[in-house]
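User: I've been going back and forth on whether these two constructs are worth ordering. Before I decide, could you fold them both?

Assistant: Sure. I'll take them in the order you sent them. The first construct and its structure tokens:
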Amino acid sequence: MQYLSGIILSFFLFSLLLLKKGKSAADTILTVWMAVMGVHQLLFYLDFSGVLLQCPHLLGVAIPFPLLHGVLLFFYVSALTKGRLMRRKTTLLHFIPFLGLYLLAIPFYRLSGAEKIRVFENQGAGFEWVQAVQAVFIMASGLGYTAWSLWLIRKHRRKVQDIFSNTDKKELQWLQYLSIGLGLIWLLVLFFDDKIIFTGAAALVLFIGFFGINQLPIFQSGKVAARDSQPLPLVDFAENEQPEQESVRYAKSGLKEDDAHLLYQRLTSLMQTEAPFKNNELTLADLAKSLGIHSNYLSQVVNEKEGKNFYNYINTLRVEEFIRLASLPENQKYTLLSLAYDCGFNSKSTFNKYFRTVTGKTPSEYFDFLKD
């Protein structure tokens, strides 16, 4: 029953995604992945139920299919974290092992139907070498792409903290769990039979359906990137200096030390007088626009002068403002959480987590300590 559930859910999600309007790059990849997942599970079920023996020319069709899941996971993670598809030539390179297994299995595909049935009934007798190559390819691909996907997610988290002041729903925690889950399925291959493996696959499809189908784009169709890509004029800086691209490290920046110091003074003054950090959707680009500078320069100043990334810098200011407000007698009538929201935090969990990071205590513990 669980096998049929996985098949039905896979094709159901495929249909929903296929009909979805305004699909993102990640949606497109997920649509393909759900189709592959459905076909793979269907072929397994037909084999498990003995139906394939009545259609022997379908035997072996699914041999390379396991290689697709790691690749499509990686493509999906890449699209969610970068907001775009990879170049076509690069994409095709990832399918070489998949096509290679089909080529290796050509001698099997050339057998008659009766010969194919005999090979399957004898656990692949005569084609043990194909099975050995298949096992190596599957494990290397599965675990390799899982590790690669986890690395992309980690890199993405550093990136969003350089751009956003609130990272709720942007750190893709669920996608990390998905990657780990797929990695665990590859480990199941080493110790369990296909029944357990495909039960795990059905559970993975359910997880994808629950979390993935309504995933919002992190960078809102590239608005942040587009805004950053246009250099803004420096105010009071040298006229002949042009901003570098974001990929260039600070060592190659045109920002001189004196200019950086002036910019830091202006930034500090802006934070003290206008408190833009209270905007819970504040981004690096927004703040750079307020100062009339390029976001690369602002990022450099925050990193060098504060020793923090943008996310940590802004949320430290929010914690400091919260402590100030919560300490005022006239604010005792408000809850700590309402004051936290006023300071720019947009969730209780983020507020508690970051407050503890800065002070080493929970908000309640901190103010109880002050009373003592």
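The second construct, handled the same way:
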Amino acid sequence: MSDPVTVSITRTIAPGHSDEMLAWIRAGSALATKFEGFLGSGWVRPSTDSEEWHMLYRFADLPSLETWEASPQRGWWLGAAQGLVGESRVERRTGIEGWFDPPVTHDVQDLRPAAPPPPRWKQACVIFLVFFPLSLVVNELFVHLLPGLVLPLRVLVSVLVMTPVMTYAALPWITRRMEWWLQGRPAPWRT
């Protein structure tokens, strides 16, 4: 018996068709439930105005998945979205690594060229742009708020505060604003 298989697909839709996309996803899920070994499906969008949708479906084993993928029902369902939906990435994994486990197998088919990662020196510069001012503010506050705390504990509290701020707020914010520079494109105000 093979391991469960999860398929992750990144799909793009024509602008302004999110209602149709949602109906199409629900129809596909309803069809898949009729197939033996179907374990579930789901989807997520980065934002409400995003044209990119990330979908997952899971089958108990590879033969069950292959039966679904070769079925006329799935062919009809995919055909129903011609001109509305495009695929940009398909990924197959066994295990539940999307949640906890490392993958047993990992098969990725990327249908669009991936942008190369920015040079490390540019990444370091962008991190510095938010890390330095944030460190100054946090350290200045903690000198006044925690004056009697020994340095190692004050640094620990500072790191505990700054890590989530950097991870979830500051770095995503600065990365979005400096994306043009990180990818070596002209500044937005020059285009």
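Notes on the second construct follow. Confidence is low (pLDDT under 50) at residues 96-113. Residues 80 and 121 are 47 Å apart (CA to CA).
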